Amino acid sequence: MSRALHDLANGTLFGVALNYQGLLNQRIAEFEQAPYQKPPVKPVLFIKTPNTRNSHDGVVLHPHGERLQPGPALGVVIGKSASRVSVESALEHVAGYTIVNEFSLPEDSYYRPAVKAKCRDGFCALGPELVPHDQVANPHQLDLKLFVNGELRQQNSTTNFVRGIPQLIAEISEFMTLHEGDVLITGTPEGRVDVQPGDTVEVEISGLGRLVNHIVAE
Amino acid sequence: MSRALHDLANGTLFGVALNYQGLLNQRIAEFEQAPYQKPPVKPVLFIKTPNTRNSHDGVVLHPHGERLQPGPALGVVIGKSASRVSVESALEHVAGYTIVNEFSLPEDSYYRPAVKAKCRDGFCALGPELVPHDQVANPHQLDLKLFVNGELRQQNSTTNFVRGIPQLIAEISEFMTLHEGDVLITGTPEGRVDVQPGDTVEVEISGLGRLVNHIVAE
């Protein structure tokens, strides 16, 4: 991880589930059943704990007897504390952007991701760089690609966010303070794939570079 | 918060849901319905993010238009990194114990506590002291009491844990490393009560003292 990224993205890692329209559409039927009976009305959050931090070129352990899925995502690094900020002023609280690969065990229910599926050691790679906010023309118009062993396996665009970055920051900061160094992981699109020991996994986001990780048997 | 507690309990705050037998029994019927159809087989974890940290004598804001419930709990402070430790050696990784008041908005579903209900600013008070492991005769035989404005409102004992401390450490460290300074919040018993602005809330655990907090309107 570059020095700037390490210094500037050292806070809490907040994941946002179900933030791609295609993924939400796939799940609508499930939400209409018990116990929820309606789709989520607010962002569904989860935490990647500090033990999950990993970096560009880092190794990710494939847990024995489990399935492992990479989670390509745009990371938004907070630059200035945000408490109850408006949608209009939310982007003033952003330092910049980075690539996140938010590894998970697949889960049947998307409603509230389980700590056990999300928080194994090394399950959240960030990097390679922090690109400052003013160097990204439009964070809601970035192509996001996942390659496994050089082959394109997942592709989407941040134009398909359910909630854009200002709305996420406004809705989350309504009930909790976001601090400098916190990272919002803005969601992984539908179509997650399984990876195996020996695979090389790369996430590319336009203008942010490519984040590489290596899957190794536990 | 005492200096020792501040220095020694500065890591991730892991909550364990449903760890009192009486609470689990109340919820069994719910788990047998969709989508889960069985009670949880592993500890149900949640995270109290760093913005929730609060201390002895600290103010807790009562969110406007919501219900607020204190969550008396025994806190176990990790003293030495734990990765895949056995039940037998788990207690070697414990530095000591403290009182936790894990405030929440009440939730309909206990299965996976929502970040929004658990992680408002100041929603996790710790203190007043860290009592070293060797000064607590038996952490599975402690009385736990909640007082609101001096009146006893909730009472239980750590003898009623679903999972004891060694089992929690062993099962959690199976998939994630617990680090020095991390805190396991071992669960809140059944019978949570609502508190109101103006209330003084105290949690007493035998041998660990009394943790006092003040509820103030937002």
Offer a few descriptive terms.
homodimer; about 220 residues; alpha+beta; Fumarylacetoacetate hydrolase, domain 2; five-stranded mixed beta sheet; about 15% helix; globular; HPA_isomer/decarb_N (chains A, B)
Structural Rg of chain A: 16 Å
Low-confidence stretches of chain A: none
Specify the oligomeric state. Answer: homodimer
Element order of chain A: H for helix, E for strand: HEHEEEEEHEEEHEEE
CATH class wording of chain A = Alpha Beta
CATH topology (fold) name of chain A: Fumarylacetoacetate hydrolase, domain 2
Tell me the structural class of chain A. Answer: alpha+beta
CATH homologous superfamily annotation of chain A: Fumarylacetoacetase-like, C-terminal domain
Number of domains of chain A: 1
Named at the architecture level, the CATH assignment of chain A is Alpha-Beta Complex
Strand content of chain A: 25-35%
Largest sheet of chain A: 7 strands, mixed
Question: What average pLDDT do the residues of chain A reach?
Answer: 92
How many angstroms does the end-to-end distance of chain A come to?
23 Å
**Biggest contact:** A-B, 33 and 33 residues
Name the helicity range of chain A. Answer: 10-25%
**How many alpha or pi helices of chain A?**
4
| Overall outline of chain A | globular
> How many beta-strand runs of chain A?
12
Please give the order of strands in the largest beta sheet of chain A. Answer: 2-1-10-5-6-7-3
